[in-house]
Amino acid sequence: MYEDKPPRRFHPVYLFLAVPYLAWVWVPFYNRIEPQLFGIPFFYWWQIFGIFLTAACIVPVYLHQEGRGK
Amino acid sequence: MNTTTIVVFLTLFVFVALLGLFGSRWRAGDLSQLHEWGLGGRSFGTLITWFLLGGDLYTAYTFIAVPALMFGAGAAGFFAVPYAALMYPVLFMAFPRLWSVAHRHGYVTAADFVRGRFGHRGLALAIAVTGLVAVMPYIALQLVGMQVVIAALGLDWAVHLPLLGTVSVPLLAAFLVLAAFTYTSGLRGTALIAVVKDILVYITVLAAIIIIPSELGGYDKVFSAVPPQQLLLPPAPEGSLGAGFAYVTLALGSLLALFLYPHSVTGLLSSSSRHVIRRNAIVLPAYSVALALIALLGYMAMAAGVKDMPEYAAGFKSFGNNFAVPALFLHMFPAWFAGLAFAAIAIGALMPASIMAIACGNLFTRNIYKDFINPNCSPQSEARMAKLIAFAAKLGALFFVLELQTAYAIQLQLLGGIWICQTVPAVLLALYVRLDPRALLAGWAAGVGLGTWMVWELGFKSSTYPLHIFGLTVPCYAAVSALLVNLVVSWLLTLILRATVGTPVRDETTAADYA
Fold it and tell me: Per the CB < 8 Å rule, is A47 touching B86?
């Protein structure tokens, strides 16, 4: 039985996890055709790029946690 | 109807069926124990979990419905991409905690965790019932995916059966295969099938994104076939946040709900350690890339003009836009490769349907049968019960598909997503914060009631309910607005209960259990 403890001290590496959400939150930024890539409008290739960005942003947090032996 | 296509399809299908049936011998465990049958003995490493969760989350219905949405509605259907990407930071942070606490206390379902964390049977029952009701139409939709493929293959061989009426023989055969291997092998057989299924899916996607655009004259030709007003989200009209807001809330609500579905929990808890889940949060997005490319198949189907071809008219008439991808494959691929692609979709229906049925078995047995009907049942009778319920769930889904219109399954699936989202405060948030269980139950009821009412108001045609706030129109996914109300109710009631009657804490978990 326990009451919730105050959260552990915040480490700045966790800010990486906010990056993918920022990439998607402002729709007018990516709701456009130009610049195109291989004939693919920006709207589509930006979001496909966003998937790679999401995976890449998790990596530093993963390394941080593994380094602390969690 | 092409013989080569059918032969390739059947060969792959039979191979997979045998693999599933003999899957029980792989890393054999004592299948009379529920966690052995229903969680594969919690033994799956990074690679198998990758295949299993990939096959579990990206189902055949996804592969048919997402491009169908793009084919019909254009850019708005692409919300599946932010949904399938942004769920991974959540998976990475929260679900290793669920794995740890479940491992420590032997939890098999999300409702097990809720019962342990809150010591409140009513709340655990509400979570279990939400899961069961939400996952049933999902199984039915997998069978719909199967029907589309069977129709595309031209296997229209039907018999009359008592009680069920006219039944397609291929669908019945697929159902029997599904039921047999789920019963005998549990999650082990499903994991083996997932490996084959995912390899076939990746081969199909790679071939599709290389061969089809080059035949159509490049990606610029594909995108120029899309009507300009569908290529982007429409700009927001005056006094409204517009389609962009709906797009983002759809992604947000869907991603919060996804890992709380019973079949996701089953897949996650079957991994052998919390590290496996964390690593998978990094490598699972490979499936999201495949999903994004599959979504674009909808545009390729537009560019190929399959809708106006007389040979596919019957398919579009029966299945609507869901026929776009099968028609595209038939039109663009050589016959043998179309057989392989259809096998990928059909097995992609079979495999998640199996996990969903297993999850139903786990949920019903643990949180309804054991908690309310027969508390003293032995581990053997627990496992036997789960196997029977898994079978009943599939039979129910088959009945659903045969007797009711597909439209009902789609509407229920829409509602299911909204309902599952209302378990966020009691499951996902409970990994961090413990609110009062009575408050959570009230919040859940408010969220489910409000969400259902909004979709009913929309005539079950959409799940984006326009809110009017100070003269501003906010088109918001009903799951998200209902969840906000749910959170506010849960939070306020917790404060009130703590200040007045006090809250006894019956929590069998400790802070160390989550690490």
Answer: no
